[in-house]
Amino acid sequence: MLRDWDINDNIVPAISEAELNEYQDWPDGHCRFVYHPNNEEAKKHSSGWAMRNTNNHNVNILKKSCLGVLVCSAECTLPNGSKINLRPAICDKARRKQQGKNCPNRNCSGRLDIQACRGHCGYPVTHFWRHTKFGVFFQAKGVHDHSKPEPKNCRETRRYLGMGKRKSVSLMLNRDAALSKKLKTLQNSNKFEFNYNGLSQNGQSNMNSSYNTTYQTSLNCQDMTQQYSPDFSSNEFINAEEIFQLDQPIKQYTMAQDFSKSPSTVLDLDRNYLVKNESIIPYYPEADDTMSLTSGSSVSFFEDGYQYFDSNNYMAANPYNSTEYNNNIFTGKQFDNYETKFFMNPSLEYTSNVKSDYLSTNDPQINYFSEYRIQNNLTGNNYINNYAEENVSFVPQYECAF
DNA sequence: CGATGCGGGAGCC
DNA sequence: GGCTCCCGCATCG
Ligand SMILES: [Zn+2]
Ligand SMILES: [Zn+2]
Q: For the GCM domain, which residue ranges apply (predicted)?
């Protein structure tokens, strides 16, 4: 039996080990718990609900308020009968970027919209956290009046890799003739530079500051195959040029403008390959773009019915979609699991889980691996701050055979 | 890049 | 004073 206490008491009671509660992912309603002082979730003050820090001017008690859930403005229903309920970003800027995006349901033309939480007398539900040597005290006030957002997941790897924004280089070949020319140069020389002077823009943002920015981007490609695949022994080696080939098989893929499906993993059934594109190109702001300079649009191949599912990237990025694909609602295929380790960067290792419908007990084998170094320099003044910006991305691209 | 925590400050009752 | 919300800053992964 829990002793009586309130988070605002001058002294909260001592709690014995036996009185500690199991960590609760989705506390709802007015409730209190005391978690073990070593519980990782409790120490991080995390919750299934999207809670953001709010200033209560009390250093001893951390207060958080609910951000609600991202829903579709058209209130569409997915093929599996569920509704769109994405997780609002905690960061204000990132959340503003989410709003108005296309609904991730490819059959829907709606936009993403924040459904605010008014579960506590018209205000968002609040969580309070307080640490003592006996435990982590938690108290919630209010009943959420909205559905649960997607749970947070391990985006750390993707963020670290700078994969939050990307376009597939292969896809770019389809839609941007100018860039594809540049990339064709790449396959011959393995190194080149190009300027985006043609994309420099003058404009007036609605932040009432003029900007004039030029972009200069360099792109270097280094074949890392030997380095990353010491057991390289495939008899079906596909070289880099084939990935950039314009006429086939890339042409069969269509583009989905969908930020939530950014990593692209494509099965080419004809060639029996899994082609995984993790390429990023820098983002060039439009004249009417009032968002961050470094925000980016993303595209995906997930439109052709031959999708593969990569849990390390795709599911982690969007559990809702991964469930959709995992249940084979669109593909009707039975997936097997493979687990393969890739070195994405000399300083970083992560495991990529691949599901395929091939009945193979072998791990996918790396046929080709290259790493792109994309350097983007902005000079002049942009419309947010007057500063020059330089950023560098390392982008892996690899291909597997089963 | 975004998640998270901190704290000053404005506005409201 | 108490509370909410907004904003910028710093840290971390
Ligand atoms: Zn929709
Ligand atoms: Zn809520």
A: 3-161
CA A5/CA A12 separation, integer angstroms: 6
Average of pLDDT values for A126-145?
Answer: 91
ipTM of this predicted structure: 0.90
For the cut 90, the answer to whether the pLDDT of residue A267 exceeds it is: no
Q: Per-residue pLDDT tens for A281-302?
A: 333 333 222 222 222 222 222 2
CA of A74 to the centre of ligand 1 (A): 5
Mean pLDDT value across residues A126-149 = 90
Chain B positions within 7 A of any protein Cβ atom are 1-9
C-alpha pair distances (Å), A257 with each of A63, A72, A144, A302 = 37, 16, 32, 10
**pLDDT for residue A315 is more than 60:** no
Which amino acid is located at A150 in the chain? E
Instruction: State the SS3 of A70-127.
Output: EEECCCCECCCCCECCECCCCCHHHHHHHCCCECCCCCCCCEEEEECCCCECCECCEE
Q: Compare A82 and A385 and report the one with higher pLDDT.
A: A82
A108 Cβ contact partners less than 8 Å away, ≥ 6 residues apart: A72, A74, A76
Nearest-nucleotide field for A159 (CA, C1'): B1
Alpha-carbon span A169 to A332, nearest angstrom: 28
Surrounding ion ligand 1 within 5 Å at CB are A 72, 74, 76, 103, 105, 108, 110
Nucleic acid strand C within 7 Å of A232 CB = no
**DSSP helix, strand, coil percent of chain A (3-state; round to 5):** 20, 35, 50
The mean of the pLDDT values for chain A is 53
Residues 97-156 of A with CB under 7 A from strand C: 120, 123-124, 126, 156
Closest nucleotide to A59: CA versus each C1'? B6
| Mean pLDDT along residues A165-178 | 27
